[in-house]
């Protein structure tokens, strides 16, 4: 019996040591500097500095909330949300979702929608290998986890706010999708290889993932009766580091 108890205890100790190793496998990455800014509506944001760029650490939220937008006739919601009360409650945490044009237009003075190169510069600062930066698809090793850390880690704190898109086969309505599963973030850089319409690069992160996706998408889409709809994604603004 003593031998059995000893074996069980040894196994539990080994398991716990393994858990500690899993918890501590990420490198410690900290910003060079931090600060705050306030938008025109009085919303305050923190920023963190990496490799000469200041990044907002929460999603932008100024302007009309996406869930209040109306269709072109003004009589119904543009975006269909199964639980609007939950979407309203989530707004403080996840911020707003924007079309590509509004993402560019709403930047506070001195800030900009990050370019594809800005995103790559951040990913490199978090440790992504230079050979992966220009790849498309899911890239990196631990950067997808680091970029989601709050102020106790990297401070970037990208969020899983989902996105707004057409549900295949359903005209007239766009849907909020993949909240708490994925985060979608615009860049301002147009993908010149796509010639049928305007497509831009963006970043996607996912729950419990160590990688970051770099790819491009059109800024609008059509349903099967050729109605045109804008895509909506999250926004983080960036600026060149200021002397402070």
Question: What is this structure, in a nutshell?
Answer:
Residues 48-239 form the Fibrobacter succinogenes major paralogous domain. The chain is 23% helix and 25% strand.
Question: What does the model show?
Answer:
- The protein has helices at 2-23, 84-94, 100-105, 116-125, 130-133, 143-146, and strands spanning 34-38, 44-50, 53-56, 79-80, 137-139, 163-166, 174-177, 182-190, 199-206, 212-218, 220-222, 228-230, 238-240.
- The chain has one domain.
- The protein is of the alpha+beta class.
- It is 23% helix and 25% strand.
- The protein is globular, with a radius of gyration of 21 Å.
- InterPro entries: Fib_succ_major.
- Pfam families: Fib_succ_major.
- Residues 48-239 form the Fibrobacter succinogenes major paralogous domain.
Backbone shape? globular
- Tally the helices: what do you get? 6
Strand content: 25-35%
Distance between the termini: 67 Å
Report the average pLDDT across residues. 88
SSE string, helices as H and strands as E? HEEEEHHHHEHEEEEEEEE
What number of structural domains do the residues give?
1
Provide the low-confidence segments as ranges: 1-23
* Most strands sheet: 4 strands, antiparallel
Estimated helix fraction: 10-25%
What is the radius of gyration?
A: 21 Å
Task: Tell how many strands the DSSP assignment holds.
Answer: 13
Which secondary-structure class do the elements indicate? Answer: alpha+beta
Strand arrangement across the biggest beta sheet: 1-2-3-13
Pfam families: Fib_succ_major
Domain Fibrobacter succinogenes major paralogous: 48-239
InterPro entries: Fib_succ_major
């Amino acid at each position: 019996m003593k031998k059995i108890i000893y074996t069980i205890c040894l196994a539990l100790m080994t398991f716990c040591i393994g858990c500690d190793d899993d918890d501590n496998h990420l490198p410690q990455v900290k910003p060079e500097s931090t600060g705050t800014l306030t938008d025109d509506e009085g919303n305050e944001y923190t920023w963190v500095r990496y490799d000469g760029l200041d990044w907002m650490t929460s999603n932008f939220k100024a302007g009309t909330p996406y869930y209040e937008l109306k269709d072109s006739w003004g009589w119904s919601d543009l975006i269909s949300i199964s639980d609007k009360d939950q979407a309203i409650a989530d707004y403080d945490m996840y911020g707003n979702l924007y079309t590509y044009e509004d993402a560019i237009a709403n930047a506070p003075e001195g800030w900009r929608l990050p370019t594809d190169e800005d995103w790559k510069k951040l990913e490199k600062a978090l440790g992504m290998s230079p050979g992966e930066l220009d790849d498309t698809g899911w890239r990196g090793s631990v950067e997808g986890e680091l970029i989601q850390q709050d102020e106790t880690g990297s401070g970037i704190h990208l969020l899983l706010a989902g996105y707004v898109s057409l549900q295949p086969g359903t005209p007239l309505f766009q849907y909020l999708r993949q909240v708490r599963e994925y985060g979608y973030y615009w860049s301002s850089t147009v993908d010149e290889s796509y010639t049928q319409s305007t497509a831009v690069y963006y970043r996607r992160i996912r729950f419990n993932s160590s990688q970051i996706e770099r790819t491009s998408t059109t800024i609008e889409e059509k349903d099967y009766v050729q109605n045109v709809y804008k895509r909506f994604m999250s926004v983080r603004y960036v600026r060149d580091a200021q002397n402070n």
